[in-house]
Amino acid sequence: MNSITKKLVSCALCIALGVLLPIAFHVIPNAGSVFLPMHIPVLICGLFCGAPYGLACGIITPFISSVMTGMPPAMMLPKMIIELGVYGLVAGLCTQYIPQKNEMTKLYMSLIIAMLAGRIVNGFVSTFILSTQGYTLSVFMTASFITCLPGIIIQLVIIPVLVRILNKSIYKQTEKVFA
């Protein structure tokens, strides 16, 4: 299987997980805003497949999820599409352009930069584009960093490890093909 096919299949799998994970988490009230289950596959896609795939995953996932499950609700969909698109795009760009030899350091740097970029863009969209009434810095900080702290911790613990495992398994498969 060539590289583009592997990335397309991996992206499609991340989109499917981005629709299924929130369903599992939403049995707990407000779990979406606390654990951020849709963010995980999008960030993985950006880190593992690269910027174009991460961007596509970030745009397509919330749209399909909203149509199929009603999550996110229609009024939240534009913000989610933009935020998740930024996550996937920035994660992929960082892994490509951060000149760091240590894989885990590079993954953490890329992940943290993508997480911050997505949240900042979400704040700007909420404030300036959607003109959400009552949206203050305090509301932004609470929604972006306090309420979702469990989700942030999950992302920081799980995502780099999963991407490293994926990278190693793909490397081993490629090594076997050329051996």
Derived from helix and strand composition plus strand pairing, the structural class reads mainly alpha
The main β sheet shows up as: none
N-to-C order of helices and strands = HHHHHHHH
Alpha-carbon distance between the two ends: 15 Å
**Rounded Rg:** 16 Å
What does this structure look like?
The chain is an all-alpha fold. It is built from 8 helices and no strands. Helix 1 runs antiparallel to helix 3 (39-49), helix 3 (39-49) runs parallel beside helix 8 (149-178) and helix 6 crosses helix 8 (149-178). The longest helix has 30 residues, at 149-178. The protein starts with a helix and ends with a helix. The relative contact order is 0.13. The model has no long low-confidence stretch (mean pLDDT 92).
Secondary-structure map:
Elements lengths: L2 H23 L5 H5 L3 H11 L1 H19 L7 H21 L5 H27 L7 H10 L2 H30 L1
Summarize this structure briefly.
With 179 residues, the chain is mostly helical.
Q: Which structural traits does this protein have?
A:
179 residues, mainly alpha, 82% helix, globular
